[in-house]
Specification:
The chain is α+β, with helices and mostly antiparallel strands. It contains seven helices and ten strands. The longest helix is centred in the middle third of the chain and has 18 residues.
Amino acid sequence: MSMPWKETTTCPKCGKENEFTLWQSLNADLSPEAKQELLDGTLFQVTCKHCGYVSNVNYNILYHDMTHQVMMHCVRECDVEETKQMIKQAEEDGMKMPGYRKRIVTDQNSLREKAMIFDQGLDDRVIEIAKLYYLAFAKEKCPDVNTTEIYFLAENGKYRFVFLGDTPLHAEFPMSMYEKIKNQYASRLLAAGEEETEIGIEWALRVFKG
């Protein structure tokens, strides 16, 4: 179920208080408007009613997509191991949830990205492997650009990667490329299984190296 409640935060610009909705748990099927805010990148934003300044609020959240059988925890780095133990304990207590993909992320951009990936019916493991190819391509074409992060984005029926850094870049990611990588790494993905909860670049590198 979804568990929202009202909290107050202080505007970093004018110092006045504003009320906002905090989601301890967000069920995408039961709260479609909140899900859309997550996909749009506005769920964690607070617009000050006094000065209009838009700020971002960070907090831990559990995202549940019943349609695509996904359970995601967005937590602080220091809470990752505790969250892993919580998931493990729940499974030992009989809450295995067969067929579900369970993920742990540590920032809101990654939560939004993975929610978007699963909402498109895609495999986040394939996306992470694809990032390695696109990062290498970007390095070759723009060697002087410092890229700090790369994210998948779905807009108007098209996919692309957004590179964040000193010079933001983006590149189209056609479905044909997704299918090519999915087929190329099918045996490795099968061997890797779905037990891993942290699926990111480091995980992709391990699979890529075999």
